[in-house]
């Protein structure tokens, strides 16, 4: 079988290969099949994503559902507009493992309760709330499901990619990691193209090492077209950290 077309970049039917970045100067050959930006990931990336997903929970409130994530072995973070006060937190249910398994079967969720009377801290300007999770059977939620280490040292730059593990519309746990570039950075927040939906409020915005860089909180309207959403937004963890580091 004649396979010379594989190396020449031209098919048997005579179509020119249109992908790639052009000629590689070190080999004088086309960079085959790298189209636009490179999307290769080491396999550990998938393992890290699954590990991170364990730390993310669905929040069932009286008003609907949202997302939260563990930041210590007994502290959960979400948005202020999810938990505006202790009463809302204490009246909600925290559900870990709310997901489909590898066989497309619903997993059994692990339900926990908030203990806002013990610890509750919130700030509407940065749209965060943190709340203590009650122990269950002598164990803490983070000792079972894990938790993210929060700091103010995680760096993020424009055009880096950010991934969001979330419960959009209260569905089983999902991850958005395509078309996910950061498009704007300010002192307190970032804006990105990563998909979210109702119920995604309070999700961790994660870099490609699955460190938390921001707390997702809202959609952003196109300033040129107010009936179009064109970005999503989250408050930088570096800004939030300065307020909560005393309780971590």
Radius of gyration over C-alpha positions, nearest whole angstrom: 21 Å
Most strands sheet:
7 strands, antiparallel
State the name of the first-level CATH class of the largest domain: Mainly Beta
Question: How confident is the prediction overall: mean pLDDT?
Answer: 89
Helix content: 10-25%
Stretches with pLDDT under 50, minimum 5 residues: none
Report the CATH topology name of the largest domain: Thrombin, subunit H
Strand order in space, largest sheet: 7-6-3-4-5-9-8
Summarize the structure in words:
By secondary structure, this protein is an alpha+beta fold. It contains 5 helices and 16 strands. The strands form 3 sheets. The protein has a 7-stranded antiparallel beta sheet. Strands 11-10-14-15-16-13-12 form a 7-stranded antiparallel beta sheet. Strand 15 (212-222) and strand 16 (225-236) form a beta hairpin. The protein folds into 2 domains: 55-148, Thrombin, subunit H; 163-246, Beta Barrel (Thrombin, subunit H), CATH 2.40.10. It is globular, with a radius of gyration of 21 Å.
Q: How would you summarize this macromolecular structure in one to three sentences?
A:
With 248 residues, the protein is α+β, with helices and mostly antiparallel strands. Helices cover 13% and strands 31% of the residues.
Keywords:
seven-stranded antiparallel β-sheet, globular, 2 domains, Thrombin, subunit H, alpha+beta, about 15% helix, 5 helices, about 250 residues
């Amino acid at each position: 079988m004649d396979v010379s077309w594989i190396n020449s970049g031209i098919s048997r039917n005579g179509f020119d290969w249109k992908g790639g970045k052009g000629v590689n100067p070190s080999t004088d050959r086309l960079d085959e099949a790298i189209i636009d930006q490179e999307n290769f990931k080491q396999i550990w990336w998938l393992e890290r994503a699954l590990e991170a997903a364990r730390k993310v929970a669905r929040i069932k409130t009286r008003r609907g559902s949202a997302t939260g994530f563990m930041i210590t072995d007994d502290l959960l973070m979400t948005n202020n507009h999810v938990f505006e006060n202790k009463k809302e937190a204490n009246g909600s249910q925290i559900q870990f493992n709310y997901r489909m398994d590898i066989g497309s079967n619903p997993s059994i969720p692990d339900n926990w309760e908030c203990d806002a009377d013990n610890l509750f801290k919130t700030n509407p300007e940065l749209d965060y709330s943190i709340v203590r999770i009650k122990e269950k059977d002598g164990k803490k939620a983070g000792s079972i499901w894990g938790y993210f280490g929060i700091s103010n040292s995680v760096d993020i730059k424009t055009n880096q990619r950010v991934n969001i593990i979330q419960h959009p519309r209260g569905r089983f746990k999902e991850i958005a990691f395509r078309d996910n570039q950061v498009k704007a950075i300010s002192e307190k927040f970032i804006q990105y193209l990563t998909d979210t939906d109702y119920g995604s409020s309070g999700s961790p915005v994660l870099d490609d090492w699955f460190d938390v860089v921001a707390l997702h909180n809202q959609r952003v309207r196109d300033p040129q077209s107010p009936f179009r959403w064109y970005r999503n937004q989250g408050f930088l963890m570096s800004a939030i950290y300065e307020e909560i580091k005393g309780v971590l």
